[in-house]
Amino acid sequence: MAVERTLSILKPDATRRNLTGQINARLEAAGLRIVAQKRLWLTRAQAEAFYAVHAQRPFYNDLCTFMTSGPVVAQVLEGEDAVTRNRDVMGATNPANAAAGTIRKDFAESIEANSAHGSDSAENAAVEIAFFFSGLEIVG
Ligand code: CMP
Question: How far is CA 2 from CA 20, 65, 79, 82, 84, in A?
């Protein structure tokens, strides 16, 4: 295992219910270090660009509407095997399938309002981190 970074987004359902501290505590307890973090309200164009890989999926329009329905918290997580570790802590995309004790099992409202996003590979993490943060904003 190597120390790596991943992009995490705490979604509008999490900010609306004031859950960002509880979610961050779980990330930190799992050995992930928050080396960059900012709260922002995505524009429609920003949400569409971030999720462009899903543009042909039937849920794309609703997903972009949801992601612009309130503030999000974008963050860079650093740690051993951070991409996989974060996905393990989040649990399955659909909270109905998420394991007990995971963020999505305990907090998510639906497959769309599933509280958190995490990069799915180291390659995508680099692209997604660069979408939100400049190098100067990441302090390890
Ligand atoms: P996320 O990890 O942010 O990546 C894309 C998001 O699309 C996903 O989490 C879900 O919140 C959302 N989504 C909505 N419907 C679906 C679906 N049927 N399959 C996968 N993702 C979905």
Answer: 27, 36, 8, 9, 11
pLDDT in tens, 14-58: 999 999 999 999 999 999 999 999 999 999 999 999 999 999 999
Phi, psi of 74 (to 5 degrees): -90, 140
Residue 44 has a pLDDT of 98
CA-wise closest residue to 24 among 90, 84, 70: 90
For residue 93, how many other CB atoms are within 10 A of its CB? 17
Quote the pLDDT of residue 53: 96
Q: Is the CB of 87 under 6 A from ligand 1?
A: no
- Catalytic member of 5, 26, 87, 117: 117
Residue 54: active-site member:
no
